[in-house]
Design goal:
This protein is an alpha/beta fold. The protein folds into two domains: 5-16 and 86-196, Rossmann fold (3-Layer(aba) Sandwich), CATH 3.40.50; 19-82. The chain is built from twelve helices and five strands.
Length: 206
């Protein structure tokens, strides 16, 4: 089926999401591993992605783990360091698609406050034709409601959507709905997918 619109995840597709890298540098390998295991901060972040206020979530977790409180607050106070740098070629591909008249939608697990920080830092995040951000919608991938909302609000048939995401479970949820998919493993391979789909030429996908 012909692709009518492209759907992009954001973290590790358009911008790097690597909190472990930051904490490894801050705490060292052993303490960093303990930090993630003991605080379960990724579980907290999923609730932020579902719409929980970032400040409140961080302070609650810091209260539960006072020995890690300063490090937990880094997640809020230095959040942009966890989400950098941009994946420049992916951003160029997004703009190239739009220049060809192909709509590009965001479908991403992202907190309300952190998405605003990211939009200020990375202007291309303001350029989607439509954005479906989990924190605003109160549900997260791979829950089917988020995918269904995109289908309903854009009016694009599932089989005409081409979706890339770096997490297999999110890709599987899209495949179950009949979307065309690509498990993102780098901008170079993503560019080739777009070329193979006839959406961009080799020159346009540089």
């Amino acid at each position: 089926m012909t692709v009518e619109a492209v759907v992009l995840d954001i973290g590790n597709v358009l911008i790097t999401w690597a909190p472990e890298r930051v904490y490894h540098a801050r705490l060292g390998a052993e303490r960093s591993a303990r930090f993630f295991k003991e605080t379960q901060i990724h579980a907290m972040n999923l609730e932020v992605d579902r719409g929980l206020n970032l400040h409140d979530a961080v302070e609650a977790l810091a209260a539960d783990h006072p020995s890690w409180a300063a490090d937990i607050r880094v997640w809020r106070d230095e959040w942009l360091s966890l989400a950098s740098p941009a994946i420049d070629r992916s951003a160029r591909l997004m703009r190239a698609l739009q220049n060809k008249g192909v709509p590009v939608f965001a479908l991403s697990n992202f907190g309300v406050e952190t998405f605003e920080v990211a939009r200020a830092a990375y202007p291309f995040l303001n350029e989607f034709d439509r954005s479906f951000i989990s924190g605003h919608m109160g549900m997260i991938k791979p829950e089917p409601g988020l995918y269904a909302a995109l289908e309903a609000e854009t009016g694009v048939a599932p089989g005409a959507l081409l979706f890339t995401d770096d997490r297999p479970e999110n890709i599987e949820a899209a495949q179950a709905r009949g979307w065309q998919t690509h498990l993102f493993d780098g901008a170079d391979r993503w560019a080739q997918v777009l070329i193979n789909a006839g959406l961009l030429t080799k020159d346009e996908a540089r």
